[in-house]
Amino acid sequence: MQNQTNPQPEKEQHFNLCKQLQEALKPFLYVKIVKKNEILLSEGDTCKNIYFVRTGAIKQYYLSDGKEFIQNFYFEGNMACHFNSFLTQTTSSSYLEVLEGSELWILSYHNFQKISEASPKFHQEIAVCMARMNSLRINLLLLSDAMLRYQKFLEEEAGLLQKVPQYMIASYLGMTPETLSRIRKKLSNNAA
Q1: 4-141 maps to which CATH number?
Q2: Structural contact between residues 147 and 183, judged by C-beta atoms closer than 8 angstroms
Q3: Are strands 29-34 and 39-41 parallel, antiparallel or unpaired?
């Protein structure tokens, strides 16, 4: 069962937005409690919402020949969205799926437009957050050596190791589970 209410002001989350914009957003957000494996967006649909992850986790992925390829993970404090689909209101090339029971604060495209018209600063700050998230992901994938990608991942996102299965981490890093296993073994042997 889904619960939709206004966000509670006593529980602050930053979502990479300045405090003033967080306060301005509150009247435009609604809360949704979602269960594990719930699909928020399917390939071919238009993304109508930005999901601010209050608690829980979301994965973004696409399917090719029936195989899942992880594009991104979103955890507490992140904005989850297929940004191109949302901003252009065109169809999505990927899925958004809930990894665990989650509480999401949701900003609809309609409310996004209203706020953007009233405050160009808001639109600019959201765009900067989106660009920063995409840039970090692209930079990780551009590291051509699988070992370097995994080491960078350990430096910046080691918390994922406890939250998602190894096969998803391998997909996120653009390698097979077997390659990831070999890299982990090699690093473990080097540390010993």
Answers
A1: 2.60.120.10
A2: yes
A3: unpaired
